[in-house]
Amino acid sequence: MPSKVTRHHATGNNATKSTRALPSRKRPIAANETYPTSRKRAKVSGQGVVPAIGLNNATLGNINAIPREVLTVYVFGTGESAGDLGLGPDKKEAERPTIITRLDGRQTTTDGYRVVQLDCGGMHTIALTEDGRIVTWGGNDNGALGRDTNWDGGLRDIDAEEEMDDGDLNPLESTPTCIPDTSFPPGTKFATVAAGDSCSFAVTTTGLVYGWGTFVVSRRVTSSFQLSSGHSANSRLWLQDAQGKKCFLCSNSQRIEKQDKPMLMPGLRNIKTVACGANHALALDSSGRVWSWGVNESAQVGRRARPQNQFMDSFYPGIIDLSRHGVRYIAAGELHSFAVDNEDRAFAWGANNFGQAGYVRNAGTGNAELPYPMQIRPLSKQGITVLSAASHHSTAVTAEGRFLVWGRLDGGHLGLKLAQEQLDDPKLVRWDEYGKPRILLQPLAVPGIGDAAHVACSTGHAVFVNREGRAFAAGYGFQYQLGNGTNEDSEIATEVKAKVLKDIKLTWCGAGGQFSMVAAPVAGGNISGSNGSAE
């Protein structure tokens, strides 16, 4: 779930903004961090490699298929500091949907890519091509792109704000570019990809996982408020530490702070898919087991760590004690996680301070974390096909075609307006001490936008695509991430209209920190305009 962004954190009637520092090639490398590690453990940055004897494409058979449906991708929002939009170095805003030229599936240019799957991180995106290669773009401060983006034109003073605003973006970050084939063993093909805040992961057709980037260990600032139930709830703002504490992988033999290029993840075999939160990851294997690793500050990793090795245990892939029936679907929010098993039971763990995990009993309480997977009955037996989670709210698509939303109410990112009768129902809504409705306790269907096909959400907004192929968006719009041509917020899910979307049937959507994406199959209609946006 994307979160490393310029964003609002609303408390009561006020909203504060947390801003990511603009990237600069002059920025010094962060000082070495101190962790409770063994003296014998090597500390590595950039090129750490965990040996994987015998694990290669020559000895493993294919268990995953590459998706075949080629997409044309549209983007809207802001990428003023890192090229999040993928529109090249001179395009920092897109007020309405704009075709990413290199991802126009109908074009046959040599510098374009025919992509079949994408995932949006906080400030970067990863895409999979029809021939099983990896394309990335956006912010690469922490190695999230998995390739070299050093650029001579990037040597600018980070304090010279006007210079940064007026100058071009780094073309190696802002332009979708393939990770070199030489970064992987010969014959490696990928079948699915996932992006977090500063990390990326990709699963091969043979069930191995490669990863790069880092997880950022944050510090938590907590402000409390009273709910109508009498409980005290915490509104948490997670800030990157000034020194940027980072860890990508930790084992008995080594600790990797940042991995600039792809590496084979240890211990993961027969993996079917991966999902990323802001700073943690999940993997689902062919036996229906769920693996997790990363930052565990809100129990989002879902595993009990040994007291003497809490740090090492969470930053190394391990199996979550979950359903004996096997899991069929996984999803991750900023600080919480979901799984749906083969009996169609939904489980969640991690942060629940705004009911975002869907567990009603402790939603909004002072200790609102689920330390291990708990069954979420309102989401069970719903035939969940898509789950997308942000920091304080979550969304889902059901087999019957309903858009379900729950979690934090203020901000408008749920896309619905409750009737007074609903607001007055204590089983449905929890109010705060200021007399404001704060938490939607139960999943509700978003009305008036058609039958659900796909959904995606980020910290302050959500995007919905219905079965007719139309897109809707709700929440904060101050960086044009709603695609309506203005920077105004929208409490109600409102259709995203643009000339380039005329006669296009969308099937997918994604949400980054300050941008959104939608995509349509190449056969979904004639593309209006080769690379322009609509007014």
Automatic annotation (TrEMBL):
Q: Does the keyword Repeat apply?
A: yes
Ranges of Polar residues compositional bias?
11-21
Q: Which UniProt keyword terms apply here?
A: Guanine-nucleotide releasing factor, Repeat
* One GO cellular component, as annotated: cytoplasm
Q: RCC repeats: which residues?
A: 71-131, 132-206, 207-287, 288-343, 344-400, 401-468
Respond yes or no to whether keyword Nucleotide-binding is given for this record.
no
- RCC1-like domain mapped to chain residues: 72-518
Q: Where is the composition biased (Basic residues)?
A: 1-10
Check the record and name the InterPro entries matching this protein.
Ran_GTPase-activating (IPR051553), RCC1-like_dom (IPR058923), RCC1/BLIP-II (IPR009091), Reg_chr_condens (IPR000408)
The UniProt annotation puts the region (Disordered) at: 1-44
Q: Which domain of life is it from?
A: Eukaryota
Q: Which GO terms describe its molecular function?
A: guanyl-nucleotide exchange factor activity
Give the PROSITE patterns listed for this entry: RCC1_1 (PS00625), RCC1_2 (PS00626), RCC1_3 (PS50012)
- What name appears for this protein in its UniProt entry? RCC1-like domain-containing protein
Give the source species. Phomopsis amygdali (Fusicoccum amygdali)
